[in-house]
Design a protein that fits this description.
two-stranded antiparallel ribbon, mainly alpha, MetI-like fold, about 325 residues, 2 domains
């Protein structure tokens, strides 16, 4: 009788014993699939992001003539020279000024335009979005050259229009006080459509039932915007703060083509210093050191923004 019981229980025990193996096999297959899916992305990140950063840091520790010649390890000599150079701090100040003003303006205008377009009818909304987004897909060089012509003191369209009301002419790109606001306005005009599209997507993700509920409670537009829309736009705001800040610190085309960093050093930014060191003076070591410094500044500011926004908008 016991032999019969043992014979009947053996298949059941085998099934129970095989379950952990099957679970482990399924788990291994899932992990293999996940890593196989992530492998191209990780490889792309390593080749085009992490490897260039490591290479830039390695080159920054040496004298590295671009046009040929022997390289020499100099340690942190380039960094010491940068920190002792007053021109670096002037460029850093101009870059920070541009980035902060650009970030705030793009976010405020982009959110305002998204709210405005969202209040339009369906047909007008479908027409307005491509129009506002069109500058984003236009060549940056073409935009910079077009605005350079608009700001021309003698033949520019802007001074010509202002002359009808008895204002001007202004030396838009040749005045130390006006050149940075002019460059910021150009960059904002090119990028605000992208900001609007991102905020529009964020607004569309908010359930309409929440707006109906606060409307029933008698909340006004400003109360609804402050206590409902802004908190629920937290992920979108975080994304726009970080990306707009990075874009502002990496500005290059507008100062390079429109003002050349002048007049004097009024529109001199860090990307122009990196370009000049690398492709005018052909010293990739100091150019890489400047690039590493810019990377560290952006990383620190992005980290502070992410931490602050995550805490300040929690609810």
């Amino acid at each position: 009788m016991s032999e019969l019981v043992n014979a009947e229980s053996t298949p059941t025990q085998a099934k129970v014993a095989s379950k952990p193996r099957r679970t482990a096999t399924i788990r291994s297959s899932r992990l293999l699939f996940i890593w196989a899916s992530l492998a191209p992305i990780l490889l792309y990140f390593f080749i085009f992001s992490l490897l260039p950063i490591l290479a830039a840091f390695y080159i920054s520790l040496q004298t590295w003539p671009l046009m040929g010649g022997a390289t020499k390890f100099v340690g942190f000599k380039h960094y010491v020279g940068i920190l002792q150079d007053p021109r670096f701090y002037a460029s850093l100040w101009n870059t920070a000024y541009f980035a902060i003003a650009y970030m705030v303006t793009v976010i405020v205008l982009g959110l305002g335009m998204a709210l405005l377009v969202g209040s339009l009818g369906t047909r007008l909304r479908m027409l307005a979005r491509p129009i506002y987004f069109a500058p984003q897909v236009t060549s940056v060089v073409a935009v910079a050259l077009m605005f350079t012509w608009l700001y021309e003191p003698r033949t520019g369209v802007l001074n010509y229009l202002l002359s009808f009301v008895g204002i001007g002419p202004f030396l838009w790109l040749r005045s130390q006080e006006m050149v940075m606001p002019v460059l910021i306005a150009t960059a904002v005009w090119r990028s605000v459509g992208y900001s609007m599209v991102i905020f529009t997507a964020g607004l569309l993700s908010i359930p309409r039932e929440l707006y109906n509920a606060v409307a029933v409670d008698g909340a006004g537009r400003w109360t609804t915007f402050r206590h409902l829309t802004l908190p629920l736009l937290k992920p979108t705001l975080l994304f726009m703060f970080v990306t707009a800040t990075i874009g502002g610190f990496q500005v290059f085309v507008e100062p390079w083509l429109m003002s050349g960093g002048g007049p004097g050093t009024a529109s001199r930014v860090l990307m122009l210093d990196i370009y000049d060191e690398g492709f005018r003076f052909f010293e990739m070591g100091s150019a890489s050191a400047l690039a590493v410094c810019l990377f560290l500044v952006i990383a620190v500011i992005a980290y502070i923004q992410m931490r602050y926004l995550r805490e300040s908008f929690e609810f």
